[in-house]
User: Which sequence fits this backbone?
């Protein structure tokens, strides 16, 4: 009998229905075979044989190719994501839905890294602490997070601003001595 050299139109339709679904959504193998034109009595057998690489290697290969194309089409990339958010914003502006347009623009900014979500989880009650305890707690927090507080972000690069701003005359003298 041998393996056929090319796909028939019914085999192509079967593969397309199987990968992309029908008008009502995803389809089973037998439903795809029936919609492609195979006999309703044999649709279950045909669907099974058409997805078996031993019986129909070309159909299986075509189904794989269609799956890859579908994944590529719906792939989320940074540029596609930003463009889609911009399209949504423009459509919202045309309809006069400014709230939706603002939300789309904020989402674009978040995707671009312009916004940072911070969440602070507090434990204990600050109201129960005395003024001295609050002062000590704030000093401890400042000491613990001093390295983070001294960083300045410019164009995605972190720079230590304490290195560029001398805090005492002694540091200024020592830094000028290193340059000599």
Assistant:
């Amino acid at each position: 009998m041998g393996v056929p050299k090319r796909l028939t139109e019914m085999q192509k339709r079967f593969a397309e229905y199987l990968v992309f679904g029908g008008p009502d959504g995803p389809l089973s193998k037998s439903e795809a075979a029936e919609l492609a034109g195979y006999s309703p009595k044999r649709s279950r057998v045909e669907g099974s044989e058409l997805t078996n690489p031993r019986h129909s290697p070309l159909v299986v290969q075509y189904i794989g190719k269609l799956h890859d194309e579908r994944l590529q089409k719906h792939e989320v990339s940074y540029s596609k994501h930003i463009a889609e958010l911009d399209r949504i914003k423009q459509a919202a502006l045309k309809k006069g839905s400014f709230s939706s347009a603002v939300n789309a623009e904020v989402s674009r900014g978040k995707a671009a890294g312009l916004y940072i979500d911070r969440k602070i989880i507090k434990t204990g009650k600050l109201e129960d602490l005395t003024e001295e305890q609050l002062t000590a707690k704030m000093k401890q927090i400042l000491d613990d997070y001093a390295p983070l507080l001294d960083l300045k972000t410019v164009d995605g690069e972190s720079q230590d601003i304490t290195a560029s701003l001398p805090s005492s005359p002694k540091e200024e003298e020592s830094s000028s001595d290193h340059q000599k």
Observations:
- The longest helix spans residues 78-95.
- The CA atoms of residues 91 and 144 lie 47 Å apart.
